[in-house]
Every structure is written in C-alpha cells, then in structure tokens.
Amino acid sequence: MAKKIGRNEPCPCGSGRKYKACCLSTANNSEFQFRKSRRAHESLAPKLQAFALNDIDPDIVSGAWSEFTDGEAMPKQLAADGPMSVLFLPWLLYNRLHDLKPKGINKPVAMTIAELFLVEHAERLSVDELELLNSSILCPFSLCEVVDTKPGMSIRLFDLLRRIEYEVVERTSSTDLKSGEIIYCASSQVRGFRSNVATGPYALRPTAKLDVLRLRKFILDEIGKDRVTAGTLHEFEIDIRLF
Predict the structure, then answer these.
(1) Distance (Å, rounded) from C-alpha 126 to C-alpha 111?
(2) What is the Cα–Cα distance from 50 to 137, expressed in whole angstroms?
(3) Taking the CA of residue 192 as centre, how many other CA atoms within 13 Å lie in the half-sphere pointing to its CB?
(4) Burial of 52 by CB count in 10 Å (0-12 exposed, 13-18 middle, 19+ buried)?
(5) I need a labelling partner for 18 at 20 to 30 A (CA). Which of 44, 55, 64, 169 fits?
C-alpha cells in the first residue's frame, strides 16, 4: 500500500511547496473520481462477463480466444485475474467486432459485445456505469512508454504510436512500473478522468522502444500518412497486439 502523504509534507510533484498548497486538491478530486470509477467497474464487469459467457454464442468467445492467443484452445474455466484474461476480457468485450444480432434485427451486425449489452440493458445501468461503458467501447490498444509515476496515484504515459502524452490514475501499477518501461494498454476518459481499461501484465524493457518505433514507421508507410490515429490503431490491432 502506498504511503499516505501528510498535508504539510513536501509535494511529491517536486515543486518544493507543501502538499496542501500544491497537489492536494487535485489528488482529492482524483481520488473521488477514482472511487466512482472503481465502483462502476466493479458492478459493471461481472454483468458484462456473464453476458458474454452466457448470452453470446460460445463459438464466438472461443474463436476470439483462439485469435487472441494465436491458436490456443480456450480453457473450461477462465480466471478473470489471470495474466491473459486481464487483457483478453477487455479486448473481447470492448474492442473486438463480432457478428451479433441485437433483438429485433434479422441479420447479424458487426459490433462489440459491450455495444450489444448496452443496447439490451441500458435501462438497468447507473449513470456511472453508462459513462464507463460508453467511454470504453472501441477504446484502442497501443504501446506506451512510462514517462513518470506517482506511486499509488498515477502514471504519465507517452503513446509511442500516436505520439501523445497523458496521465492515467492507477493505484497498483504505479508502484511497480519504472520510467522508460513500455506497456501495452488501452485507456478511456470520463469527465476528464482517464484510467486504463486494460494493462498488459508484463512491461517491456526500455530497449524495446526502437522496435516500437520501427513498428510505427511500418504502419505509417502502410497507410501513406504521417500520423497514427485511433482508427489506425484499430486497423493494425493484430500487428500491435502480437508485437
């Protein structure tokens, strides 16, 4: 557990000011938003997972697992906190397009499981659950360099493919990750609060950065443009995931 910072202690941001006169108000708001997000996630996640495993054709889920793991057979019992599942389940629910049939529609439609869940269960969800769900749908995965961490609070990331920098509130990983390491992740934003929908269980060493930049050049050469967008990340999702 991260050590709590005293109000009169030096601010961990390095400004030289006391914590109460610097980042405390931001931290309090961040903590409030974090708790709201965690409550929404903890109530929404089991509903979504049950919907995917019980209401969706099992062949769709097992086929997605085979695709995600490059041919492995899906285990009978999928551990939600397993090293593969922490990435697979968000990808399955929010990112991968499946041929699904919403009620009242005769032909299958290319959509995510989360989108179908939203169509069929929106009236049963809280405002916070709806906001979290909408922000997470089609949230692209990328490879991000850890710029800095505030242990127990947040991580500043630099998306090496899109060349954008942002901060995510993260309690656990922020105590383990080090500057320069590279993670595979997807982040969403609700009311200015950004958090990771999914984070790879293992970080790449800083020496992998050159290979990531080579991947970026490959992508740019393929699309004939000078900028990688969220749409580009979806288009090259397999290349990025198998990196």
Answers:
(1) 22
(2) 17
(3) 5
(4) buried
(5) 169
d(CA 181, CA 29): 28
DSSP three-state, residue 186? strand
Predicted confidence pLDDT, tens digits, the chain (243 residues): 345 566 677 766 666 776 556 665 555 556 666 777 778 888 888 899 889 888 898 899 889 998 888 888 877 766 656 666 788 989 999 999 999 988 888 888 999 999 999 999 999 999 989 999 999 999 999 999 999 998 888 899 999 999 999 999 887 787 889 999 999 999 998 887 888 999 988 899 999 999 999 999 999 999 999 999 999 999 999 999 988
Residue 236 DSSP one-character state? T
Query: Can you give the pTM of this predicted structure?
Result: 0.81
Q: What is the 3-state secondary structure (H, E, C) of 35-60?
A: HHHHHHHHHHHHHHHHHHHHCCCHHH
Phi first, then psi, for residue 185 (nearest 5°) are -155, 170
Q: How many CA atoms lie within 13 A of 221 on its CB side?
A: 6
What span, in angstroms and rounded, lies between the C-alpha atoms of 90 and 199? 10
Rounded Cα gap, residues 27 and 89, in angstroms: 30
Inter-residue contact 182 to 206 (CB < 8 Å): yes
